[in-house]
Amino acid sequence: MTDRSDNTSRYARQARHLLANAAKTSGEEVSTATGSKKVGLEKTGEMVWGAFILAIKAAGAKRGKHLKSTAAIKWGKDHGLIAGRDDVAAVNAARALHGRFYEVDMEYDEFLVAKDAVEVLVDKILIEVGL
Are the C-beta atoms of 47 and 21 separated by less than 8 Å? Predict the structure, then answer.
């Protein structure tokens, strides 16, 4: 079994890796018969969502807690990692990006704003716990 510091750094490293990959894939344009369109947004949204959950899991691991993904957001709120209006808005943005994988109802500009908000929260969580 891995120890707490292994999980902490593994989750944090993977969160940063997902954000880096998301930055590379968001908004790739492909030509279509009717012009061009952005592709990969669903995949990018899932990467950002995953990075968000992994950041909370890293914080939990640092404090000796193994979190399941489904409980991570509540744990993050309960432990002060998600506090204030901007953080709550970023959580809602993360949920919207995750939901976008199943339902495409977000314009590209909205997608970028949501992605940026979640990235700021992920960085904040990792910095707050010294990762």
Answer: yes
> pLDDT band for position 53 (50/70/90)?
very high
Q: Residue 29 sits in a domain of what CATH number?
A: 1.20.120.330
Domain that holds residue 60: 4-128
Q: How many domains does the chain have?
A: 1
User: Tell me: the pLDDT tens digits for 1-44?
Assistant: 456 668 999 999 999 999 998 888 866 665 566 655 566 788 88
